[in-house]
Design goal:
With 71 residues, this protein is mostly helical. It has 3 helices and no strands.
Length: 71
């Protein structure tokens, strides 16, 4: 084991969640899979309590859950 070593892995705060989303969104925007109109700030607020890995998975699969809007 780790010989009694404790490692604190805290959840990201809103600023940290926003940074994770920005990194993921950049690629999605470049691919045309995500609009610039999506509010990453709002998503960061709504994902309080999410670990960084879950936010990344959400970002990776975002386009599978959202139906395109046809005007």
């Amino acid at each position: 084991g780790l010989g009694g070593v404790q490692i604190d892995l805290s959840l990201p705060d809103e600023r940290g969640r926003l940074e994770i989303l920005r990194i993921s969104a950049k690629r999605l925007i470049e691919q045309g899979a995500l609009s610039h109109e999506v509010s990453l700030e709002e998503i960061a607020k709504e994902t309080d309590g999410f670990p960084g890995a879950d936010i990344e998975v959400f970002s990776e699969h975002y386009t599978h859950f959202v139906k395109p809007t046809v005007l």
